[in-house]
Design brief:
CATH topology of the largest domain: Rossmann fold
CATH architecture of the largest domain: 3-Layer(aba) Sandwich
Number of strands: 12
Number of helices: 10
């Protein structure tokens, strides 16, 4: 695999939920596969760029993964980022939507049916129906109503809908920016939010980079992402095992 053979020239992008951590009923309880923080540190020492790119807030990612040296973290689809210098940066365009996000979070938290989890993220809010599948229609309708009322964008996810600012920030913008000028680019992901990242990897490939996309697959994997992947592995444990082989090769 080119990632292993040319690591010092490569940029490697990793999703968190469903890739480095198993999907769980309670989103607050998602923890990485054992050994992942140490693995990230090893990858960071070997690769040109290693970045965890997630829909989670940076505060959550750092709490779960620590701060492995030389590893970048982009939270909220790039609206928050900590670079190699350790400095936190937030998208100023997104900051202007913080009040709208809070208002929507308050309304959804007040009105959500039993079992529906409203996950506040500061600059976004995700509504999960995993523990209340009968509430899917309510979640979708409430999210669509909130988006129409406020101008926030409703994005589907794994048994969830997320409301976030309508700004030019997604996993693809992070991959395009940090992956530019690297001759080898790899990306691991598992869900709809990773499609822009895979698209950005494909664009870098058309521009001349050697690329590989790895889907971390399970029964909920979106067909669009599966069709875009070069490699498929079965779940986070297999993804971490592949990364261990890359880090140690």
């Amino acid at each position: 695999m080119p990632l292993r053979e040319r690591a010092e020239e490569a940029a490697l992008f990793l999703d968190y939920d469903g890739t480095l951590a198993p999907i769980v009923d309670d989103p607050a309880g998602a923890r990485p596969v054992p050994g992942v923080p140490e693995l990230l540190a090893r990858l960071g020492a070997r690769f040109g760029v290693v970045a965890v790119v997630s829909g989670r807030p940076l505060s959550y990612l750092q709490g779960a993964l620590g701060r492995p040296p030389a590893v970048r973290m982009a939270g909220l689809y790039g609206m928050e980022e900590v670079g190699a210098d350790g400095v936190l940066r937030r998208d100023p365009a997104a900051e202007g939507w913080r009040g709208s996000v809070q208002e929507v979070t308050d309304v959804l938290s007040r009105d959500a049916p039993p079992g529906v989890e409203v996950e506040p993220k500061g600059l976004a809010v995700t509504v999960h129906w995993r523990r209340a599948p009968e509430a899917e229609d309510w979640v979708r309708e409430a999210a669509a109503s909130a988006a129409a009322r406020t101008g926030l964008r409703a994005e589907p996810g794994r048994m969830s809908v997320e409301l976030r600012p309508p700004v030019a920030a997604d996993k693809g913008t992070v991959v395009s920016r940090l992956g530019a000028r690297h001759p080898v680019v790899g990306c691991f992901g598992d869900d709809l939010g990773d499609i822009p990242a895979f698209e950005a990897v494909a664009a870098l490939g058309r521009a001349g980079a050697t690329t590989v996309t790895v889907v971390v697959a399970d029964a909920e994997s979106p067909p669009q992402l599966l069709a875009m992947a070069d490699v498929s592995v079965a779940g986070p444990e297999a993804a971490v095992a592949l990364l261990e082989a890359i880090a140690g090769g």
